[in-house]
TrEMBL record:
<dbReference type="InterPro" id="IPR003959">
    <property type="entry name" value="ATPase_AAA_core"/>
</dbReference>
<dbReference type="Pfam" id="PF00004">
    <property type="entry name" value="AAA"/>
</dbReference>
<dbReference type="InterPro" id="IPR051314">
    <property type="entry name" value="AAA_ATPase_RarA/MGS1/WRNIP1"/>
</dbReference>
<dbReference type="GO" id="GO:0006261">
    <property type="term" value="P:DNA-templated DNA replication"/>
</dbReference>
<dbReference type="GO" id="GO:0000731">
    <property type="term" value="P:DNA synthesis involved in DNA repair"/>
</dbReference>
<dbReference type="InterPro" id="IPR008921">
    <property type="entry name" value="DNA_pol3_clamp-load_cplx_C"/>
</dbReference>
<dbReference type="InterPro" id="IPR003593">
    <property type="entry name" value="AAA+_ATPase"/>
</dbReference>
<dbReference type="InterPro" id="IPR032423">
    <property type="entry name" value="AAA_assoc_2"/>
</dbReference>
<dbReference type="GO" id="GO:0017116">
    <property type="term" value="F:single-stranded DNA helicase activity"/>
</dbReference>
<dbReference type="GO" id="GO:0005524">
    <property type="term" value="F:ATP binding"/>
</dbReference>
<dbReference type="InterPro" id="IPR027417">
    <property type="entry name" value="P-loop_NTPase"/>
</dbReference>
<dbReference type="Pfam" id="PF16193">
    <property type="entry name" value="AAA_assoc_2"/>
</dbReference>
<dbReference type="GO" id="GO:0016887">
    <property type="term" value="F:ATP hydrolysis activity"/>
</dbReference>
<protein>
    <submittedName>
        <fullName>Replication-associated recombination protein A</fullName>
    </submittedName>
</protein>
<dbReference type="Pfam" id="PF12002">
    <property type="entry name" value="MgsA_C"/>
</dbReference>
<dbReference type="InterPro" id="IPR021886">
    <property type="entry name" value="MgsA_C"/>
</dbReference>
<keyword id="KW-0547">Nucleotide-binding</keyword>
């Protein structure tokens, strides 16, 4: 058993040994009470790697004493599932833990789901992807619980580390290890909420440390060396990656410079520079917009520079762009106005283009009545340029307003012009 990784050995054997995730499996939750009373519902566990999906499944199995089987949907075939179905027929009920359930194919599904439906197989599925996006609806409909796990707190991780250091049967409790509370906290911080990584890091530190007079001496420099990059997680194109992009944009929109830089750092460590650049350009026009029109050009220059430079130097222009966007005046009025117009079109609220606005660059246009257009440039108005009072919207949409100015930054000046031009128009 000692040849198995420490993280594997320290998996909880029952629900009371689970550290963290108390909002899901704590003693006061309905799920805990159901399991304690002998009822285990099929469920989906959703969350990042290392935050306890597999551990919770094993803990549930430990509480119920039902036969427990574990498969990975990426590798399992129809034959594997048929064997578990056969076991369920023999013993009456089994628990099947199916990791990466979002990769479940139709053949696997057709073999398994009837037995989940009749209750002979309790399905506990685990996924790092959003189950509402990536898990087959047929599976979701048969799982009574869809549970989102949270990243472990530093206190959770410290408790896991202390459990491993004191457990004499499965952990390192039989070994005298000189490690301080401060060092335990450093390991917990480096693990970044990932229980598996914390115990893997602890085990690596143990094996990299020297023994002096029968005692393992943990040194800070070993912790620091082995901790590098351990906090980075996020597969390109996965749910967590898109959550990071979302958090980045919402932090910029909320003008929180430090949060925005944090999420940018996370995204760049994942390495998908193109996706980050695309999102920054969208943000420049969606969230800054008319309040500071120069930002669009600045962000475009920064993202193009980043693509030419490549990582790690690309972080430099992108950091400038993020801070400028965070601290800029903001407006979403332009794209909101366009979305309002699109919505009106989808609702069927359209009308005929006024005759004087229709194409008149051909012989016969006058016969069709395409006349009467007044050329605004022929009528200067102050320093604004040319303007003339004439109808542009269809007859049935006159006086409709899609654009609602935001009085912020440069848009304050534009809003004043917009209101002044409305006052120049003759009532319709």
């Amino acid at each position: 058993m000692q040849n198995e990784p420490l993280a594997f050995r320290m998996r909880p054997r029952n629900l009371d040994e689970v550290v963290g995730q108390q909002h899901i499996i704590g003693k006061e939750t309905t799920l805990y009470k159901m399991i304690q009373n002998g009822h285990v519902p099929s469920m989906l566990l959703y969350g990042e790697p290392g935050i306890g999906k597999t551990s919770i499944a094993h803990a549930i199995a430990g509480n119920t004493k039902l036969p427990f089987f574990s498969l990975n949907a990426t590798h399992a075939g129809k034959k594997d599932i048929e064997q578990i179905v056969g076991e369920a027929r023999l013993v009456g009920k089994v628990i099947l833990f199916l990791d990466e359930i979002h990769r479940f194919n139709k053949l696997q599904q057709d073999t398994l789901l009837p037995h989940v439906e009749n209750g002979s197989i309790v399905l506990i599925g685990a996924t790092t992807e959003n189950p509402f996006h990536d898990v087959n609806p047929a599976i979701r409909s048969r799982c009574g619980e869809i549970l989102q796990l949270k990243r472990h707190t530093i206190e959770d991780i410290k408790q896991l580390i202390r459990n491993a250091l004191t457990d004499q049967e499965r952990g390192l409790g039989k070994i005298e290890i000189d490690i301080s509370d401060e060092q335990i906290e450093k390991i917990a911080i480096a693990a970044n909420g990932d229980a598996r990584k914390s115990l893997t890091l602890l085990e690596s530190i143990y094996f990299a440390s020297d023994e002096v007079d029968g005692k393992i001496i943990i040194k800070d420099h070993i912790i620091e060396h082995l901790s590098k990059r351990i906090g980075v997680y996020g597969d390109k194109g996965g749910s967590h990656f898109y959550n990071l992009l979302s958090a980045l944009q919402k932090s910029v929109r909320g003008s929180d410079t430090n949060a925005a830089l944090y999420y940018l750092a996370h995204l760049l460590e994942n390495g998908d520079l193109i996706a980050v650049c695309r999102r920054l350009l969208v943000m420049a026009y969606e969230d800054i917009g008319l309040a500071n029109p120069d930002v669009g050009a600045h962000v475009y220059a920064a993202t193009e520079s980043a693509k030419v430079l490549g990582l790690p130097e690309a972080r430099i222009p992108l950091a400038n762009a993020i801070i400028e966007m965070c601290l800029s005046s903001k407006s979403n009025s332009a794209y909101s106005a366009l979305d309002s117009a699109i919505a009106m079109i989808h609702e069927g609220k359209t009308g005929d283009i006024p005759s004087h606005l229709r194409d008149a660059h051909y012989e016969g246009a006058k016969v069709l009545g395409h006349v009467g257009y007044k050329y605004p440039h022929d009528t200067p108005i102050g320093t604004f340029g040319g303007w003339v009072d004439q109808q542009y919207l269809p007859d049935n949409l006159i006086n409709v307003e899609f654009y609602k100015p935001v009085i912020a930054g440069d848009e304050k000046r534009m809003a004043a012009i917009y209101d002044r031009l409305k006052n120049f128009k003759s009532p319709k």
